Amino acid sequence: MSTPPRRVAVFDLDDTLVRGDSFALFMRHLLFRQRWRAALAVLSAPVLWPMLFVPASRRIAIGGMLWIASAGLSEAEFTGLARRFATAHADRRIRPALDRLRQHLDAGDRVVIVTACADPLASAVCAELGLPDVEIIAARLQHGRAGMRPALGCRGAQKVDRLRDAGISLPVDYAYTDSAVDLPLLKVATHRYLIEPSTRHRDRIRAVLPDNVTVLDTTTTP
Description:
- The chain is α/β, with parallel strands linked by helices.
- It has a single domain (8-216), classed as 3-Layer(aba) Sandwich (Rossmann fold).
- Helices cover 46% and strands 21% of the residues.
- The protein is built from 9 helices and 7 strands, in the order E-H-H-H-H-H-E-H-E-E-H-E-H-E-H-E.
- Helix 1 packs across helix 4 (75-89).
- The longest helix is centred in the N-terminal third of the chain and has 17 residues, at 35-51.
- The protein is globular and about 55 Å long.
């Protein structure tokens, strides 16, 4: 008798397993740890900040801020800073959501964290959360002469593409997120769960997916 396929549970990272935008907070940390980087960040903000909210220019804005944050750093230095930042950032963990993730692991499910947070930070945060062996699909950076730069995204519909690229059949069994940005992921999930969504994101999701979306109570362990 053939063995049934393992169920697949997909989790977002930011504001799902840990509070806050991990990479944005890390970038802020890098930008303000030295005065010259902070000065460049402040001077460039009127140009780069509005570009973050326009899909066509978002990558350019992220690349500009990332250059200011990482210029002069080797790849090893950047990774080391990410690991040190992750140590403190993991204290912002959302324990009930992590408990839910571990329930999936205990049940033998395939658990995948799919996040717009870039490696190496995503991997470092997951290791600090006690999840070193969980599969991680994250945005990718590339090191060049001018520092780090975006190489491959993992946001919105890109998450679904990255899951396919990893050989994961759709639909997945479970998806956990807090954000309407992940509607493409929720659409390809059989069971959909929201972790501490804002009212705006919850309403946007339920307007598109009125059925089979469960908001988890994270005030107590499930």
